[in-house]
Structure formats: C-alpha cells, structure tokens
Amino acid sequence: MHPSRERFAAGRGYLAACTLGLPADVTRDAVRRDLERWSAGTASGADYSSALERARAHAATLLGRAPGEIATGSQVSVFAGIVAASAPIGAEIICAEGDFSSIVGPFLARSDLRISHVPLDTLADAVTPSTWLVSYSLVQSATGELADAASVAEAARDAGALTLVDTTQATGWMPTDALEADIIICHAYKWLAAPRGAAFAAFSARALEALTPHTAGWYSGADPWASCYGPALHLADDAGRFDVSPAWHAWAGAEAALGFAASLDMEEVRRHDVALANAFRERIGLAPSDSAIVAWPDADGAALAALGAAGLTASGRAGRARAAFHLWNDEEDVELAARALGR
Q: Is the pTM of this model over 0.85?
C-alpha cells in the first residue's frame, strides 16, 4: 500500500485514474473552501490569481521547468491548437497512429498541412529534415503504451524539428521532469486528480519564438489586471503569453492537487503503480509492462461489464478494456479485479 492511500476518502475498486482521478484530502478541502468563499461573497479575482501562480510553480516542478516556461489554460486541445495554427503552410507534421484526438485534431483541421500517422515505436525513424513537428502522447490513452521520448527528441533535434508531447496520461504516476521537448501539454484531471478545467503547458525558448499566441486575451499580458482593454496587444515575455483566462474554481482545487503531486517522490509512485499493474497483468495472462495502464481486447465489452458487475470502476476505449492503478489502489484491488474476470 502506498503511504498516501489514507489521503483519499475512497479508492477501493477504482481503476479509472486514466479517465478521472480521485481528489486527495487537500484538494477536496480546497474546493469546499472555495465554494464557501464564493457563496459568502468573499472570493476575489486577486486571490484566484495568486492561487494560479502557486499552481503554475507546482506545474513547473512536475515538468522540470521554471515557472516562466509554464502557461496555464483549460484544455489540451487549445494549446495544441496554438501550435497547429502557427504551423507554416505545407508543414510536415508527424503524429502517432491512434493517438488522442486533442493533439491530432487541431492539425487535421488544417487542409494545408502534410500529416503522417505512424506507429508509436517508429516516430523517431519517421522524422526527416523536412519535418516541422512531431506530436505524440508520452503514454497512449487507448493502450497505455509508453513512447521512447529520448529517441524522438534526438531525431527531432538532429532534423531541426519541433516536438509536442502530451503528458496527460503520464504526469502524476511517473516522472516527467526530464523530458526534452519544445511543447509539453498536460491536463490535470486524471492522474494529478485536479478538477477538470485546469491544464498547463511548458514552452521552450524556441517554441516561444516559433508560435503565435492566437488565443491572446487579457490574461496573456505580464500583468493581466493591466491588460484588460485595447487597443494595445498585451503579451508577456515568457510562456504567460499563451495563458488562457483561467476557470477560477477549477484552479482553486488544482493548486492543492498539483502541490500534493509535486510533494511526492514520483519514482516511488511509478514503482507502486506499475507493480500493481504488472501483478494484474500476470493474473490475466498478459506480459509485464512499464505502464500503470493495463489495456486488453474487449470488443464486446464483456470484461468491462464483468468489472462493473463486481462493483469495480474501469473504462473501455477503442475496443479495449482499461484498468489503471494509482495511489489509492493496493493488492486487494488486483485480487478483486482478477476475480471479477474469473482469473
């Protein structure tokens, strides 16, 4: 059992961190306090901005960056959309085959780009001197498969290409503080267990120069409270230029959630989660893996239905059943899930 297990009010039989995380005590309490302040009329924009800046610092820790390299927003697709909108006409974009729509769709929406979809394990080989960007998820949503980020980064660096990595299915259960990438995007409502509506992204110096802040608004200035009106364009010098006006209440909880995650030994979390996932894989006849997500063919939904009938919460994607193991899970969850499947 992970020492943080007691920080969660529930979790027994909950195998869906890859879909929706469970709030730790500090996150739950922060959301409650926010609701009370809002109800009492004592909430203020200035306080929310302060909470957001603290959350930005926690996000920076999780991604191994400085706070000035972090932009905050609400959705992965918005950040990916900025990158897609900034791509030159005719640019070559390489995507992982079957990757999550939020980092594929923004590029497909442009008919003037050259987009290739290749198997995840061939991303590095697909990079050529004409490649403008490689876009992929570090951990695949449908399968739980991990990308070889180091090889992709090396190939992109040698070719002069940009890299975009989505860590939504990674940050929170494995270390993501040493990734080499120009843009790293993460939504915090899964493994980081923040309220939905809090996302963040890291931008390299090269990305700051190459990308246009198409979503610029009042919050994209160095001092948002002085950027509320035109006619001037207010842009921060750092990644704050890509900030999207924050969903205040989501960030009230996200500050606590990200702070909790940043306080953990993420390598220890990885060992715990992967050990449980591999114990479950062994029970159902699958080879061991390095992922906290276990996915297997379930075209008729029978496995997912069996887990649900046993009172377990799992998920199904792309014709597969998925079970995810995280801080609130232990060996008893492995046993319950295996028994539900007749194993």
A: yes
